[in-house]
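Bench log, entry 3. Co-assembly request; chain sequences pasted below exactly as received.
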Amino acid sequence: MRRRKFLILGILPAIFLMTFLFVLPSLWGIYSSFTNMALLGKEAANFRFLGLENYIKLFKDSSFYTSFVNTIYFVVGSALIGQFLLGLIIALLIDYAEKKKIPGRGIVYGIVLLAWINPTLIAGFQWSAMYDYYYGTLNKFLNLLGIQKINWLGTMPMLSVIVANIWRGTAFTMLIWLSALKTVPLELYEASKIDGANAFNRFRYITVPILRDIITVNLIQITMATMGAFLLIWAITSGGPGLKTTTLSLFAYRTAFEAYRLGYGSAIAVIMLIINLVFGIIYIRLFRRR
Amino acid sequence: MKKLLRLLPLLFILLLLITYSSAKPITIKVWYPDELGVKPKYVDKAAEDFRKAFPNVNLEVTRYKIPSGDFLTKLLLAIDAKEAPDVFHIGGTLMPEFVDAGYIRPLTAYLVKWEDWKHYPKSIKDAVRYKGHYYTIPYGLDVRWLYYRKDIFEKAGLPVDWKPKGWDDILNTALKIKNSVPNVIPYVIYAGVAGAGGTVNHGYVPLLYGVKGVAYDVKSGKYVIETSAVKKVLDFYKKAFIDLKLVPQEVLTLPKPWTTMREKLGAGELAILFEGGWVYGGWVTRYGLENVEKTIGYTLMPSEKGAPYFTVGGLGTCWYISSQSKNPDLAWEFIKRFNTREIVAKINIEDPHPVARLDSAELPEFKGIKYLYDCTQILAQAKFEPMAPGISKFGNRVQLMTGRVASGEMSPDEALRKFIEEMRMDFGEVIVK
Amino acid sequence: MKILVSIIFLFMIIFFGVPFLWLYFSAFDKEASAFIKFPNFTLSNFIEVFREYNFTRYLVNSSFVATITMILTVLIVAISSYSISRIKWKYKNAFLYSLLLLHSIPLSTTMVPIYGIMRILRLRNSYLGLILIYTAMQLPFLIWLMKGFFDTIPEELEEASWIDGCSFFKGLFKVILPVSLPGILVVSVLSFLGAWGESMLILILVDSEKMKTVPLIFYEAMRTVGGYMEVRYELVSSFAILFQIPVMILFILSRKLLAVSIIPGVER
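Structure output for the full assembly:
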């Protein structure tokens, strides 16, 4: 019985700290989203409750819709299509190369991983140099090939940040698949070879079903991480040109720390929190089934 | 009794603590942003004078080597945390919003007693008055020029002594350069969010003033949108960016377009640019006065059809006293020691701006510089930046509107409609005519 | 097929490698630009970073924050995940899944509220605030990880030691600690890296000159170095490398351990 007390006591510090980071801020966010809290201008001197006004404004605010749609583009493009497919392909290739002893797999593995552990801000710095219109590496390469230079961040800003984010985050999917591929029982493969199934069918009918849960968990994880991406976009485009790369995270940041409207910024944060909780709960349901 | 004796050391410590805390010197904190390194010399000079006059006061001067936007955030967070410095240095246009937020203290009581106040012209005194009080003393005013490269003009067969006869002349000149001088950007006017303050004061506002438009109505305290004027401005943007493709789209997308464009004009890769007067000094340090005088011309901004020619004036950055300051009298003593005839003249010679103090302009070393003389001369033709509460929100909406037109995302009409809608959302009532 | 795979590998190496090559070349070049080119080798950028930008101070600050965060995190994680692993509790699963839920919420979602709460608690510009929040931010995942680790250690192990006459704590210390060392090592490395590399909250929580850390100073350098006219890529690159080095070293040293455990984690 005394032991149980110790055990309960042992959990408390963790609970306390997590309350401090997750619960209190959420409560504060909900509270302040009903106010006109601001750091500058008239509102800063006259704090008051607005009721639902911030939310009503938000749903009328075209910038909010733009950021919302941008977030979807960004997530679908860089996580669901980019990171997932590229990560899967790289994992399959490395797996294949391991079996056939093709050189270079170690370097690929290492460098993909390097892009992932690299602090995100640095990734942003590297890519803003790649994309620089006048002197950037990409355009100089095009120049060497005799192709007209492209205004990457002007004409295709969303694609540009998506590519940068694929670069940065592919390793995660690759790692999951590499370890998952090792768990697929080989006997099934052997059996199917005898049956005459080709490589694609083997993948489709044996690998995929076994890994279905891994796929869903992986997808939801990269979706949520990508939805929350902030620093990378911030460092490359700061959300511009116009609002073309402003996702919800950037919109919330700009509202709170550039327009200095904390109340309105909180309303955005609360909406984001709700979206994330919904995703999170789906994720956990799937995880639990596993 | 014994008990009391035991308490004695405790009392002694208490006493020590009290005397210590009361003897602690008064501290005056001064914060200012400076990336270029011009200001520190003069701030230090003022600080030195201050320390001589008040040897018992601890003056803490902090220079922040960051862009002024980042400094503003830092300052606001400090004010919010009740840790504001006594004196700080921010743009003159922010004054109304700072007053409305209750962050700064009026200087009226000090100024009426300050004998140097008489050296400031009425126009400037009016500009720093808000809700019946003076809040700051400008020292170096901002003017803006339409800069152009004389060497490029020569190559294009254009007269080097340029005085554009209206907006069309600017566009036509740029078009001629585009067609005759390769590898040169003909013209740049800032637009979009990336252009930040430049989009407002170097782009939208000079154009708006060129059609006699106004942005804010002081009497009613409301923003004004004159649809026909704004429409003309947006049409100009459309012509420059989309129809004639004179301004490159990178202006909308570079992270800090102004640094690149200033660099390009200095290097002779850009022909026409409306920019701040202070940029001239940057070119002079880099390329030498003689070179710059030979290659870079500057002229006033024309109205839509030519005259009246004008510049967009600004109060520059100025010192303010925080309303949180416990020693405003001492804070004022510091501000006073910065705004002396000498310092105001010298800092504006080094970082060329026209002076707000008329007697500083009389100093021979100031008078002797042609560029500064020109800048001071055009003050009479200056129309000042709009100063109004919520100016940053307004600026943000302007950036969005111009960006939408300049990128081709929307037609001028659509962008204007959206602008009105957004301004109403931000400010409630807006005068639309 | 082999050739095709090799060609794809080559493309991957170029795509993932060029940005790094550019970074390393630039940092050791006298005059770098946004274009990748072979450097005129020099160390002067690094010297300038230390001399002109007072980098040592930020290095000390960052190391301090990351180390204390690491110690605190390891302590809390070890104790609480052991407790969770051993406790019999109706809501244990619910608790574990809520940990996973907390972990999956990206930090940028709660950024504004975190700022708000730290402002009320007067924990802006304070290492205490920073350390607490860095610790808290990593707890859900690390507890989840470590709890799984403790689950693999049979309970009989410590029970045997208690029967042998060891006290509750002594038993844990002598029996459990040694076997859980690899797990603790993983937690240490991950928590150190988490605190070292965090660059989002630091933007809004710290602005005092004295307290800046390496990520913050890198961010500022990226935004401002060169100032009026141009970006000084060579200088910012050397900032970047100094910021990155500890991450790389720790990662390489412990990659065998990490590779196994990092997989269920979402990067923040």
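The radius of gyration of chain C is 22 Å. Chain C has 13 helices and no strands.
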